[in-house]
Amino acid sequence: MKNNSIKTLVRENILQLQPYISFRDHNEFNAPVMLDANESPFGECNRYPDSTQKKLKTKLAGLKKVSPSQIAIGNGSDELIDLIVKIFCEPKKDAILMMNPSFAMYGFYATINENKVLKLDLDENFEIVKSDFLKAAEDPSLKIFFLCSPNNPTGNSVDDIEFYLQNFNGIVVVDEAYIEFSEKKSSLELLEKYSNLIVLQTFSKAWGIAGARVGMAYASEEIISFINTVKAPYNVNVLSQELIIKTLEEENKLQENVSLILEERAWLKQQFEGITCIKKVFSTDANFFLIRMENVDKVYTRMLKEEILTSRRDPAISGCIRINVGSRSENEKLINLLKEI
Ligand SMILES: *Cc1c(COP(=O)(O)O)cnc(C)c1O
Asked: Whose Cα sits closest to atom 15 in ligand 1?
């Protein structure tokens, strides 16, 4: 970012907003008599969750080597994408920039907020063309650039993220939903250097807890305080917070999950070779493959018929299907069918 301070990027109404404060949470007040929130005194899940998600943030901060004040927790990282758009983009006036193809939800939330969505077409290897980016970035209505690395649905990572942080006059969000599967470094280490960086991560993919709906934003204390101001106070429920804390205490859980997926990914890659309905398997840093088929319609329809659900990306990405790495028995069924076709 060249010369903007974060406050000049934030919408005026958000700058004026007073956060909803739960006295109990903000003072760590655990009284024997709790008559402040109109809850029921009975039942197992009768109390509101901690709106500040303190215990969860403390655990995460230790793991990620950041301060708890640099973490915001969302109902999935999806909610955080929505909140980030709302904080920085004035409806009917501002715009976001995103890679194309990339994760559709950036455009989805921007459109709901009545913001324009500018798309930066990737080249044939799904890389950003830097000169195209520099040209696009001149548009003064742009407030946020959503980078997805590794990118969904292409699987490759974005190189030289610092270039975009330096040359974009707004917020750069690096969505790292798949970072645990990649050998590339997380952008978390750039947080100290760039005040316009937000890194998104999630428990939905490598951690295997998509059902709990928990995602994280890491950024400067200033940006995080805006996210905390606009979020619904009780956005992450008690059961999810407890499940995540418990999972974080199981020391090798993540590494075990990731190793298994990476083994399966390597196995699948090997199996894809020599399958005649496959034209090209794109290289991946994530837990899925983007595959170009000889006859995508025939392959996809046949897989559906045999109850193997995959994600068709054609016609947006010509001839392609995105297939994620599953368990060995799922992967075997997939390979057997592809061989048959
Ligand atoms: C799956 C995915 C997410 C995760 O979203 P959650 O709301 O945390 O489940 C975020 N970004 C990308 C690019 C994804 O593919």
From this structure: 152
Q: Please state, rounded to an integer, the average pLDDT across all residues of the chain.
A: 96
Determine the distance separating the centroid of ligand 1 and the alpha carbon of 137, expressed in angstroms. 25
Taking residues 16-38, what's their average pLDDT? Answer: 85
Partner residues linked to 199 by β-bridges: 174, 218
- What is d(CA 81, CA 314) in angstroms, rounded to the nearest whole number? 25
User: How many C-beta atoms surround the C-beta of residue 228 within 10 A?
Assistant: 19
| 42-79 per-position pLDDT tens digit | 999 999 999 999 999 999 999 999 999 999 999 999 99
Residue with the nearest Cα to atom 1 of ligand 1?
177
Nearest ligand 1 atom, CA 148: 13
* 75 CB within 6 A, ligand 1: no
194: CA distance to ligand 1 center in Å? 23
* CA 42 – ligand 1 centroid, Å: 36
Question: In the sheet where 215-218 sits, what is the strand order?
Answer: 71-74, 215-218, 197-202, 171-175, 142-148, 95-100, 116-121
Say yes or no: CB of residue 240 within 6 Å of ligand 1.
no
pLDDT at 123 over 90: yes
Q: For residue 199, which phi and psi values (nearest 5 degrees)? A: -105, 130
Closest CA to 328 of 268, 283, 281, 285: 268
From the CB of 215, is ligand 1 less than 6 Å away? Answer: yes
Which pLDDT does position 95 carry in this prediction? 98
